[in-house]
Amino acid sequence: MTSNQAVALxxxxxxxxxxxxxxxxxxxxxxxxxxxxxxxxxxxxxxxEVNGVPDNWLGGFGWLITATCHVWTxxxxxxxxxxxxxxxxGIMDHRRTSLNVGAGWxxxxxxxxxxxxxxxxxxxIRHVPVQFQVxxxxxxx
Length: 141
Hints:
By secondary structure, the chain is α+β, with helices and mostly antiparallel strands.
């Protein structure tokens, strides 16, 4: 990368779109949404928060991003939600080449970071956020 190369626009939206595409095509029997329809049937996954910090170095630009997917179920216990979370991990973890994050960027790595079981204020809903750490670098021209 040359010192006068312009920095491409941050890849946050492109990362969310790529995650949505991967999960919507590979996750079985589960709706994947950014905005959940009012009468969505159980279970579903939402593409959630993105937290990005610069990961620049001398002569290059990058991002260290924490990206979260949320699993939601209306079932007794957490088994169903954890099964879906495990499927998400299988789809996303170490699958960097399958994510297209837009012009000027490439995914260096994507790895499962953590998940947490949570009880929703509605006692019938189980919630499991699943987080990934994604390293993205700007392509050299």
